[in-house]
Amino acid sequence: MIINHNNMKNKLFIVLISISLFGFGCAMHKDVVTLDNRIGEMRLRVVTAENEINRLKALSEGLRVRADEISRAGDEKEKNLRGQSAGQRAEIEALKENISALNGKLEEINHLLKQLSKTIEESDRKIDGRLVRIEEEAGTYRTYKDRIARLEQYLSLEAKEKAGTQDPTVAKNNDQKEITIQITEDELYASALKTYDKGNYSTAREKFQELMAKYPESDKMDNCQFWIGESFYQEKWYEKAILEYQKVIEKYPKGNKVQAALLKQGLSFYNIGDKQNATLVLNELIQKYPKSNEAIVAAKKLKGFK
Description:
By secondary structure, the protein is mostly helical. The chain has nine helices and no strands. It has helices spanning 5-165, 168-180, 185-197, 201-214, 221-234, 238-251, 258-271, 275-288, 293-305.
């Protein structure tokens, strides 16, 4: 029996291939199962990973949102802080301006106080000077009054001496004349002035005195008294004139002859050499009646005294 080796070989090869394929098929089946298992595991891991990724994304998103909120809050807070800081800076600048203005006011007040202090010092000096002058004038005024009192005393004694030597029959005759002669107030005043203008001062004086005795309510009383003083002044009997002018000043302060009486009294003092009292009387005239013509004359006379 002839054995066909080639066929045997082929059959053997086929058997071997079959065996190999069977073995390989078994091996392939296991590998597929293993691979499927691995793929399943990997899919599970992928799903798990995706879930973790999604969780992480969500967490990240939450953190981002929170970060944005914090950032916005920080920005808002920063804005507020900046606003507050700007407001505070504005207040500080305003305070600085107010302080600067106050400093300026204080400097101005200090300057005014210094000026006021100087003014007060000057006023004190002026007041002291005025007080000294007032004391001097008071002393002078007392001297002036004393001088008038001495003149009155002297002239009263002189008048008494003359009255003592007067013939009583003459006085009686004069009384009889006053009774028999009846003239009006105006006529008597006009007659006295006419007599004065003629230079008959003694007679004029008697007529003025007669008018004052007969008409004591006359509105010419101050004029009569002034002209009596003038009659003595014209006779250069200045001491007596001073006393008569003083009666005008004291008895008729609202009359129209006070300014003239002050002027002539001041001149009378000057004429008897009493410059001190003359200055006092003329200054009094200027102070009391500064707009009068007599005050203008007095001012010129005072300039001549120097």
